[in-house]
Structure formats: C-alpha cells, structure tokens
Amino acid sequence: MNEYLKSQLVQAAQEFGTPLYVYNARTIEEQYNKLKESFAGLRYRIFYASKALTNISILRLIHSLGAGIDCSSINELKMALHAGCSPSNILYTSNGISFDEISEAVALGAHVNIDSLSNLKKFGEKFKSNYPVGIRLRPNILAGGNLKISTGHDKSKFGIPVEQINEVVQIAKMYDLQITCLHIHTGSEIKDVEIFIKGLQVLFELIPQFPNLQVIDLGGGFKVPYKPEEEGTPMHELGKALVKAFQEVDTTYGKQFEVWFEPGKFMVSEAGYFLTEVNVIKETKHVTFVGVNSGFNHLIRPMFYDAYHGIVNLSNPNGDPHKYTVVGNICETDTFATDRALPEVKEGDLLAFLNAGAYGFEMSSNFNSRYKPAEVLILKDQLHLIRKRDTWEDLIKQQIQVIE
Ligand code: LLP
C-alpha cells in the first residue's frame, strides 16, 4: 500500500470514525480495465456481480465504466435500476427463487437465467416464446477456494444438473422457448484457466440442442490474491484460451457467440479496506491478543470461510514485528487472524484489513446490537461518505413492543 493511500485511510478514519469501510474507485477502474484488456479478442459483456458490494455509488461507478449488473435477488435488481442501470444491462441469475420473482424480473425487463426445471416449466406456461431466457446449469465440476464457495460440483444446489439437459430440451420444445443463454458459475476464487475451459466445454457440447443460443455465460469466480504469496487467475492467459475456444466453436457452428462474465471479487475485493481501532491489548501466557472495535458482525469472512485478510498497522507501519492474534469484540469466538506477525501494535492503533471490498460490508449484520459501519469512497482523491453509520434509531425502528 503506498504512502498516499495510507494517509487517505488515516484521514478517512479521523473524519468518519471507525469501524469503517473505505473503497478506492481507482482500483475498481483498474480491475475493470484488466478485464477489458484480457478479453479484448472476444465478443463479451461484463455484468458486475453486485452481491459482492451493492452500495449504489459503487453500482453507479461500475456502470459508468461500461459494465452491466448481475443480480441474485429482486431487490438487487431494483437496486441496479435505482442506480441508473437500464434493464437491458441487468442480468438476474436465479438460485432457488420463487416464480413470482422471476415474473417480476421479466416485467422489469432484465435478462433472466433460470435454475430449476419447475421454474422453467412455469416460465414456459406464462411466457412461451415471448421472452428470451437463459438456463443456469450445474456442470458437475468441483472448483473454488473452499467447499462453501464451490457451486458447480455434483452435490451442489445450484443450477439444473447438466445430466438433466434432455428435460430442459423437452420443456423448451413444449413451450417453444427461446433459450438464448447457457450459464454456469462453478465457484469463487478459481485460479486455474483449465477449470474455466472445462466448464466452457461442458456448455459447448450442448450447443446443437439450442438453436436460438447466442450467449455462453461463464459466471464469475476469478481469483484475487489474498495472501502475499498468492497469485490470482492469470487473466491474460484465460483471455487467450477463451479466444481460441470461441474461434473454434464459432467456426464449427457458423455463428458468433457472445461470452458473458459476472465478476464480483475481481472488481471490488482489492479496492476495499476495513478500518478498525485497537480497543485492548491482552497479554496472556501463550498469546498476545489484539482486540479491535469490530467483529465478525462486520467482516465475517475469516470466521465463516477461514479466509485470510492482510492487516496493516496504519499507526505504526514500520514497527518491529510481533506475533498477535487479532480478535473481534463479538461475545463468542471471533478471530480475524491467528499468530499474525504485525508491526508492534498498541491500544488506539488503526488497523486496516485488506481485500475487504467484496462480501465485507455486504455480509455484515447488527449481531450483538452493534451498528453497521459507515462506507466511504475515495473518488478522484476526495473522500465521499457513501453510507452513514447505523444509529440507535436504525437498530430499533422495525421492532414492535407488545409487552407493557
Ligand atoms: N455469478 C454468480 C451466479 C454467483 O453466484 C457469484 C457468487 C458470482 C457471479 C460472483 O462470484 P465472484 O466473482 O465474486 O467470485 N461470500 C463468499 C463468496 C460467495 C460467492 C457467491 N456467488 C466469499 O466471501 O468468499
């Protein structure tokens, strides 16, 4: 992290308090440009997977760069519309949702991918050939950073298992459906190019069965490095492999297919910093605990996925390293990092958790009746508050007191 960014983070903490999420617009733009460069040889579209971070200023920023928005709930879809995205730039990839929601997404004019045979039948009955539709398939490929974020394997709830493709085709024929897109999302944090290509091949084999097909949607899941020694998905290599694969398939079928992507982490993970302040240093026989003024209610990834987040001590970046276990203030086991070497930490120090842009604020809660953090966007060197910290009012406004 460069000195200027460090000073901006310190300034953000001073101005808006902690715990605080801060996002750097420049990094988001850089990530988007990497996608554009890597996929330049393809006919492609990017739909940012907004589930990673839905703040409307982030949606507007990403949309202004040229991306569409991918949604996983009807409210995400409405949020994308609210942020100024037109329906033709919105993709709704369903997962176990009610048919009412699918109907609403159609009424709002979004692209829709359907993930169950029962909803596909209902779709056929209601819309017949009047509305083009995509199919979310389960390719039966095990991939992703850990089992919780692997979605394409043969025991996963996601998508229509590819072995049920005959049933999809039957339903399509029965209702004269226009199936224009085949979709997979194999998992999150997929590093290997081969996995994407393997998924692609699964879809390519199905092409002859779908005469209206125009789009192959590969979902998201590009890996970003979380640990210092880690590497992300080699995007240029992936781009090259995809260009080759699509050239072949376009020639075979005499048709030009589009490829769609739904990156979440790749767009926003590295742009985000989660700032906390050290409440307590607790020396014990075996461990020195650093207790910060936040917990898994604000950043759940370490506890939920055993995820690693880099930590920078902004108050003492060049101090001598010591081993610490960094813990939260939630009243149960709440560990951010175990035995982590950090420049000497003192009470009152400001710690920044790295890679906090994706699934950080978005998965936060009010557990232990604590306020959700504020969010700040660094845009053209200026700090902008893009979400206020919760207040006492926010905590109690939905509650109804019935006991006198
Ligand atoms: N498309 C679909 C259909 C998805 O289900 C997902 C993520 C994405 C795109 C974006 O995947 P990404 O590019 O962000 O890997 N909360 C977890 C990640 C769960 C991802 C769920 N689906 C985490 O914090 O690691």
- What's the total number of strands? 18
Mean of the pLDDT scores?
96
Count of individual helical segments? 12
| Order of secondary-structure elements | HEHEHEHEHEHEEHEHEHEHEEHEEEEEEH
List the quaternary state of the chains: single chain
Intertermini distance: 55 Å
Strand content: 15-25%
Radius of gyration based on Cα positions? 23 Å
Main structural class: alpha/beta
Shape from CA axes?
A: globular
- Report low-confidence residues grouped into runs of 5 or more: none
Hetero groups in this structure are:
ligand LLP
Major pleated sheet: 9 strands, mixed
Residues in helices, as a percent range: 25-40%
Can you describe what's shown?
- With 404 residues, this protein is α/β, with parallel strands linked by helices.
- The protein is built from 12 helices and 18 strands.
- The protein has helices spanning 3-16, 25-38, 56-65, 74-82, 99-108, 117-127, 165-175, 193-204, 235-253, 265-268, 301-305, 392-396, and strands spanning 20-24, 44-49, 68-71, 90-93, 111-114, 133-138, 160-161, 179-183, 215-217, 258-261, 272-283, 288-292, 311-313, 321-327, 335-343, 350-353, 374-379, 382-387.
- Strands 1, 11, 12, 13, 14, 15, 16, 17 and 18 form a 9-stranded mixed beta sheet that branches.
- Helix 2 packs parallel to helix 3, helix 2 (25-38) packs across helix 9 and helix 8 (193-204) runs parallel beside helix 9 (235-253).
- The longest helix has 19 residues, at 235-253.
- It is globular, with a radius of gyration of 23 Å.
- It starts with a helix and ends in an 8-residue tail after the last helix.
- Ligand LLP is lined by residues 49, 52, 70, 93, 149, 185, 188, 219-222, 262-266, 301, 305, 358-359.
